[in-house]
User: Fold these one by one.
Assistant:
Number 1:
Amino acid sequence: MEASLPIRKIIHVDMDAFYASVEQLDNPELKGKPLAVGGGETRGVVSAASYEARKYGVKSALSGYLAKQRCPDLIFVKPRFDRYREVSRAIRQIFFDYTDLVEPLALDEAYLDVTENKVGNPSATLIAREIRARIFDELGLTASAGISINKFVAKVASDINKPNGQKTVGPEEVLPFLEKLEIRKFYGVGKVTAEKMYQLGIFTGLDLKGKSREFLVTNFGKSGIHYYDVVRGIHYSPVKTDRNPKSIGAERTFSENLSSEIFMLERLERIAKELDSRLSKRKLAGKTVTLKIKYSDFNLQTRSKTLQQFVSSQQDILREARSLLYQEKLHNSVRLLGISLSNLNTEEDMEKDDESVSVQLRFEF
């Protein structure tokens, strides 16, 4: 299988510190200053941080309190998701000038398949450079890009020369690139998995490649098959223009910790209403209801229930969330509540593209 790779030219475009960069763009006084979107000095968590703030260890999901401790000069701004969506739409319009095969991952990143493209340019590298230049010229924002033969390698490559850079990994470079790569930089290998791999003597792609499929499945389950394939440059997933979400949710962080279940039920009613609206817009329903509870000591708990039928209405969602809230005694006062639905009424396309090409085949990248 090692000699077989899909015939694709994939670009992964990733905006640089997107939310923070939009805030700095709209408010020039914030440019060059450490900035955190979301959170607050005493409440909430950081949604995004500018590169100036990242130098101090401020990053997404960090509590506002810890962020301020790490960077005393940190400036907090409230997120403006309508504005981020507006800019994201403008970025995607640029993408569509080059290809209709665009798969958004979030507001700030997307895969593009430019194997065949609207501008007739055989070089994915030059297309990526042109797209990044247009984003800067037309919107005043910088983006980074990874270019390669499949989505996995392109995603990993986009992180190599961040911010405001790009990295091309051509067909003949894929295997050497992956072999030298630190295992923690493999997309999908989180902190816990990386620690487990270290314990098994896996520190680089070359170490991973030296492990048998059986060894990896024994230690990592189904993910072991994925690790076995990707380190050999094998990743069949095509760019999907219609991504099916695995779950949809809504959550709220409170200005004051809640200790009364009555107050929690009031908040859950609003959250269920918001989730109802999101589901309605996408014509989705789900069978598994999950209640997310974050306590005042930042411990996180989830409680889930899978139903026989699909639900989507505020009334049904709230009924199940209420049941989950009363499922067991709360451990502490609560700072955040969230509800999500999974097992959605969507179908994932699991077909693999059988077209393949030798890794040594050279064509313009």
Note: DSSP finds 13 helices and twelve strands in the chain.
Number 2:
Amino acid sequence: MTAVILRADARRLPLPDESVDLIVTSPPYWGLRSYTDGGRHYEGQIGAEPDPQDYITALLDCTAEWSRVLKPSGSIFVLLGDKYVNRTRGAWRGSSDGFTWRAASPRYVRPKDMPEKSLMLLPERYRIGAVDKLGLIARAVVIWDKPSAMPESVTDRVRRSHEDWVHLTKEPHYFSAVDEIRKPHAAPRRVAGRSAFNARNVNHVRTGTGHYDGQHPLGALPGSVWEVGTQPLRVPEHLDVEHFAAYPPALIRSIILGWSPSGVCTACGDGRRPVVDKPGLLGGDNNPASRDGSRTRSTMDGGTERWQRRIAKPDRIVGYACACSTPDAPTRPAVVLDPFGGTGTTALVADVHGRHGISVDMSADYCRLAQWRTADPGERARALGVPKPPPVPSGQDPLFEEIA
């Protein structure tokens, strides 16, 4: 498809109302670093506010703008990190002068209502504000478990090795295609015998929860903890970008496949959802049996009898459908937006998986980096998880537009 790189402000997006199917982004964390153009700090960037409450207010202003461009059927996924209150340096991890990269900048201040060494709970404050002030629906919080997280020089608490995604929607009913991202079933962590695991495949009625049809043949839904290792990003020297913080493509892939359509119908406007073939169950009894589907069991009078279990045929995705009565209407690519595009990971992964990716950033340096990355054959192969493909022919670079 395409990857478009826009230089613009996340609070004023150059996009029409309700034009985006999915938003996936990671805003700059408060007081962590300066993002630059040509090595110089630029004004107006999120994360440079002197006070954490101002930071949350700015993030909510951004989110209100994202809600404007998001379709009613769309989702927003935001990755946000936290910070500790520091007595001697306010909340800034740098020198006591606050922003070290410009002398006239305001210094960070320690919030008076937060005790020293406390987490500021910035992700939680953002989520509460998104619900209370913007009326969004908080559908889930997903933990990104980083097995190779950076070490910390602390001795009185655990090392922090995770960050939080929040899944927000505008409406209770929205697009999802979770059948695309199911995981293989795993046996429970218990040693109560084989029957303890097999019992999960038995059809039975659960009191108060409806009918249970056993394990889904396509696999289990992903849990709320995703273990994904970080990956280094090697940027060519000629781009001359001093810092780059990129989350791994594997972290974004499940979100894009699970919550953006493979195609949007041009007739009805709905996203195409996967159609799962459910051939049903064969045979009679439901309980586990031998490989050929039959076994003997004892009867009430002490004899034996042979019975045939019901054998589940595996479900599979056989196509995609929308609200149209016929499945042959043309489609267009779904639009996936990252309003803090940075290195272009979201647009890259969306592009290689058949979506239209849009990466927005205020920094010309990062727009230049994202332009290179979304076109580079090696980066595109890594986003797909396949060996490096041949070089991209000239004339197929992504579009780079600068919006004032």
Note: The helical segments are 52-69, 122-132, 194-198, 249-259, 345-352, 364-375, 377-384.
